[in-house]
Amino acid sequence: KEDVRQSDYRAMYSCGLLLLSTALHKQTISPLLIHAAKVVGNKLLLSIPALFNSSSYWKNAISVCYNTATEVCPSLDVNLVLPQQVRGNCSFDFDVVITNNENVNWAMEQARFLNPAYDKNVIYANLDLPNTPSALHLEDDRTLVDEQYTDVCLGGTFDRLHNGHKILLSVGALLARKRLLVGVTTDSMLKNKHLAPLILSIGGRCAGIQSFLSTIGFPVSKLEVAELRDAFGPPAYCPEYRCIVASAESVPVGNTHITR
């Protein structure tokens, strides 16, 4: 039997892992995030312990998790770990595991999928979560991420990454089978933008993108970060990009297929 220490969580942890169920809804995630924000002071990883999910499930899960985090714990650095078939067998570092499942051994098993050497604290949240029939559930067909493209691209300024950026980058990472190209606007393109002197340098913005994608488990070998010197970037002349990920506000409806 595992010797798992139950913490009274009076101390703050730098990085935590919050285990979610496959039934996702704002009303069920909100109490867990609020609870986790009292325990974790810096970075929180979210993990959905499921192996077989469709891309539509994951795109919705990404949106629900980050939008809810923006509302209930905006100062916490929240990161939803990608499904295993996308991230592979990379390892993650965290100081504590938080779960609403009273089976602590199950929580340790899930934690060791992400970090085989993990032997630290598990906190049982013991929250009475609402029953939400409309929650997102694991799909019954047990298909793998089914909507993928060889080459996927997206672009933006990415100044001081926020949860909207994380949604965009996560969906791109989810759909890219071989390569994800992230275009970042150059400093010269931003010189006339409001409060331009306060925008991070392109080096700092690129580093933030790489750090986030690494945090959620996207393989660095599949990532390409390029400087955008015009409004179009490589997709304008590289036909291999069959998918452009964008927010609904950034592209005129009907001109481009938008992956939400």
UniProtKB/TrEMBL annotation:
Organism lineage: Eukaryota, Metazoa, Spiralia, Lophotrochozoa, Platyhelminthes
Organism: Paragonimus westermani
Molecular functions (GO terms): kinase activity; nucleotidyltransferase activity
SUPFAM superfamilies xref list: Nucleotidylyl transferase
Matches recorded under Pfam families: CTP_transf_like
Protein name: Phosphopantetheine adenylyltransferase / dephospho-CoA kinase
Domain Cytidyltransferase-like intervals: 154-212
Keywords carried by this UniProt record: Kinase, Nucleotidyltransferase, Transferase
